[in-house]
Design brief:
This protein is of the alpha+beta class and 280 residues long. Helices cover 20% and strands 39% of the residues. A five-stranded mixed beta sheet has the order 2-8-7-4-5, with no helix packed on it. A hairpin with a 2-residue loop joins β4 (61-68) and β5 (71-72).
Amino acid sequence: MPRSGPLPAALSLLLATAALLPGPAAAQNEPRINASEDVVIHVYGPAVTLQCNLTTSPSPLSASYWVKNGEEIPGTRKASNTTEYKILKPRAEESGEYLCVFLFSNSPVANATIEVRATPDITGHKRSENKNEGQEALMYCKSVGFPHPEWVWRKKVNGVFEDINNSSGRFFISNKDNYTELSITNLQINEDPGEYQCNATNQVGSVSVTTILRVRSHLAPLWPFLGILAEIVILVVIIVIYEKRKRPDEVPDDDEPAGPMKTNSTNNHKDKNLRQRNTN
């Protein structure tokens, strides 16, 4: 009579795994979605249509809708096994991660993901930055486009843009998704002025923009006052010169008599003496 003992460990593991596998009925109830392939869009390119088709439904369908970058797209909700979303004007801001979502009455939500990719487009940056020596300069760039770009800052040196040399320890770069900042502390008038470039690059393409940094001297705030003071000094000098030319030193005229002029009182006195003689 054969011995009965514990089953081998390998056979026990095989039986346990078989018990956990879903049967044919369970596999048939899993939702299946046929979705469009990932797509790359280009500015001024043709319109793009994203499609999803629910081929297998585990329970009655309640609704379907589209999601972009985690937010539901308004106006896309409907009750249909087939759904599509059209991008009529392909632009970088239309790129992102799209999901077609299907809701069921008695089953978990099902979805499929479609990536719409595009070259980054820098939508905001400083054209110029004007600061005084010793202050801090802050330059930034922000973009749209998916996937999120890798950011690089460069400075023009001898006509060529080169990666920033932070040997002085005064340059600080902060990157987060579609945004980047470059700050420079304790500005030096002989080292820091110039053209700075931010570059955004992802798997689709690359784009760059430039910011001009100007650094003024410590005396820059005094320049308006010194200009006004100089104008006042020049005006005073002009007035003094003009007055001297208008009133030269007084010199007696040759036509005037050298002696004192006779007054009317003297003439009246002579007339009075002449009348007294005639009376006598």
